[in-house]
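Fold it.
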Amino acid sequence: MAEEKGISNSGVFDCEWRKRPINLMSVLRSFVSQLRPGDELTKMSLPSELCHPFSMLELISLRQVSYFHVLFGTNKATDDEGRFLAALKWLAALLQAEIMEKKPFNPVIGEQHICWVEHSADDWTEFVSEQVSHHPPISSFFMRNKKQQIEVEGNLKFGVKFGGNHAAVTTAGPVKIKTQFGTFHLDKSVPNMIVQNVVWGVKYVMWSGDITLSCPETGYSATLTLSEVDPTHNRIEGKVTKNGEEVFEVYGQCGVLVEVWPVGNEEKKTVLFTAEDNKLDTLSYPPPSAQVETDSLALWKAASDAIIANDLYTADAVL
């Protein structure tokens, strides 16, 4: 009998629990139930009513590994320009229109997450991450594909500030992409994020601010700026430079279409990324028997199962 496979809820989208509305009274009851004389409010657990049944480490792996194959284009390009544009396409693929109805669990110190993608019998991409700090929250990760000779290492640090009916998520943490033809650098793994209509209205999420990809060895660099056009349109625009001189313009919509053209020559516009490129790789996870105690899938299983079953009393008790 084949052993049961490991499963992460981060990649499950067409399900009831993702669409389940937030019950504000349940949130208030959860907060009140935690109150004790002399308690610090900043150390209270976030109610399970506001959580999705997976850890932030699982979400990072889904975002990073699902589009790792796009980086293989750096091996197919024939010159420095082509390789840089291939890496830029990978970045554009990462910047999908984000959906975040609720939030993932905050990883605990020492928490680990492992997954992989089997592209073919002899072509694998491996991913491992660990929570290395809780205050501030910092998640470190490493990916590699031995056959393609590509490695990615980085970390994600974030903070959240509330203002009226929105929340601003600030991000930090550099990323290094090593290929057989050169090394690329991201100043952060993802841009900042704005969550609109946190308290009332229809919630939506927008990438915001700048993110820079560079290759010091070749002199190529690109800074992309993300902004909101309307609740369904997350704009992406920027310039590619070589040794400080602008050589390409970039413009488009996250997750839909991103185009690039030589500066001053829009007639030569070409597609960098399109929604047709949204092919997600299938992630695999260790079976339950191979999961260590600090594995995200094992660590959060009780809380995740309770949230999916809509048993929030049990979920709050184990969070």
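Confidence is low (pLDDT under 50) at residues 39-43.
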